[in-house]
Amino acid sequence: MGGRNPYIAEQVKFTPATKKFKVTFKSEGKTVEVDPEKVPYGDHGLPGSILDIALSAGIPLDHACGGVCACSTCHVIVHEGLETCNEASDAELDELDMAPGITTKSRLGCQTVPDGTKDVVVEIPEWTKNSAREEH
Ligand code: FES
């Protein structure tokens, strides 16, 4: 299943949404209505994760490892609704430590699943976009 790293024994716990809710991507100025009936939208990240939602709406959110908690390129800052998201696993926190500019509201988009009880506002940090897309 997308979102799980086969080399990490710890299973990420999350509560899937049961009703529609909205995720606003602040920097992109785009709000996406999430329909739990259609989740997962793809196979990148945990089902119904911020990454899954972003990609379904054509919002570019980098995911170098494919959404299995093995990089930090899907770093997002959850400005509103963080309390409705699953708790970060130890593996997520380890990867997040590698991300530039982390804040107390930082999460990995592929591992963060809102439960749909409240709308969520997310920012994809500029430094994440810039560092992941630089030509080498
Ligand atoms: S895409 Fe690699 S950790 Fe999320």
Query: End-to-end span in angstroms?
Result: 31 Å
Strand segment tally: 5
- Rg to the nearest angstrom? 13 Å
Percent of residues in helical segments? 10-25%
Form type: globular
Q: Strand-and-helix sequence, N→C?
A: EEHEHEEH
**Heterogens:** FE2/S2 (inorganic) cluster
Strand content: 15-25%
Give a short account of the largest sheet. 5 strands, mixed
Q: Low-confidence parts lasting 5 or more residues at pLDDT below 50?
A: none
Q: What count of helical segments does DSSP give?
A: 3
**Overall pLDDT score:** 91
Strand order of the largest sheet: 2-1-5-3-4
Secondary-structure-derived class: alpha+beta
Report on this model:
The protein is of the alpha+beta class. Helix content is 16%, strand content 17%. It has helices spanning 50-56, 90-96, 126-133; strands at 21-25, 30-34, 75-80, 106-108, 120-123. It has a 5-stranded mixed β-sheet with strand order 2-1-5-3-4. The radius of gyration is 13 Å and the shape is globular. The termini are far apart. Residues 63-65, 67, 69-71, 73-74, 95, 108, 110 line the site of FE2/S2 (inorganic) cluster.
Task: Note the main attributes of this structure.
single chain, 136 residues, alpha+beta, five-stranded mixed beta sheet, 17% strand, binds FE2/S2 (inorganic) cluster
